Amino acid sequence: MKELTVFYCPYCGYYGYYLIPKRAVCPSCSIHMTKLPLSCQQFMELDYKMRDQLIGSQIFEGAEPHSSVVQRITEQAKRFNSRAVIAGQAETIQKLKQEIEVLKTENKKLSDTVAWMHDTIWKLTRREDSRRGD
Ligand SMILES: [Zn+2]
């Protein structure tokens, strides 16, 4: 299966995904669009602001692929994503800590109960013993 390619209009910045490069024509300028030097997948990982930035820089610097710009922007996207992952992890750790606290409290209650039961059984056993001793 052929992959979709991202094309942009060097005049107005319109972009779209196309299977066939011949069909990549800007609907408002009626000119052939230029291929972006990154995969559709990479492009879709960028947010709208980064897409605009990327296309803007492509228009500004000309139609030639500028891998440095693409790299800079995808690096930026990667950093942004890993920040989100780290934030998510911190949140998870925080939740786990809370769960551990709950478990600790429950455990304390349980061991208190066990201690109380032990005491009671001990007392009952002693009572049995003393009664037997009579
Ligand atoms: Zn256009």
List the helices and strands and how they pair.
Blueprint: E1 5-8, E2 15-18, E3 34-35, H1 40-45, H2 48-61, H3 67-133
Antiparallel strand pairs: 1-2, 1-3
The structure holds zinc ion.
Structural features, described:
With 134 residues, this protein is mainly α. Helix content is 65%, strand content 7%. It contains 3 helices and 3 strands; from the N terminus they run βββααα. The protein has helices spanning 40-45, 48-61, 67-133, and strands spanning 5-8, 15-18, 34-35. Strands 2-1-3 form a 3-stranded antiparallel β-sheet, with no helix packed on it. Strand 1 (5-8) and strand 2 form a beta hairpin. The chain is rod-shaped, with a radius of gyration of 33 Å. The mean pLDDT is 80.
Could you give a quick summary of the protein structure above?
Helix content is 65%, strand content 7%.
- Ligand set: zinc ion
Topology, number of strands: 3
Our count of helices gives 3
* Biggest sheet strand line-up: 2-1-3
Task: Report how far the terminal alpha carbons are from each other.
Answer: 94 Å
Which value, in Å, is the CA radius of gyration? 33 Å
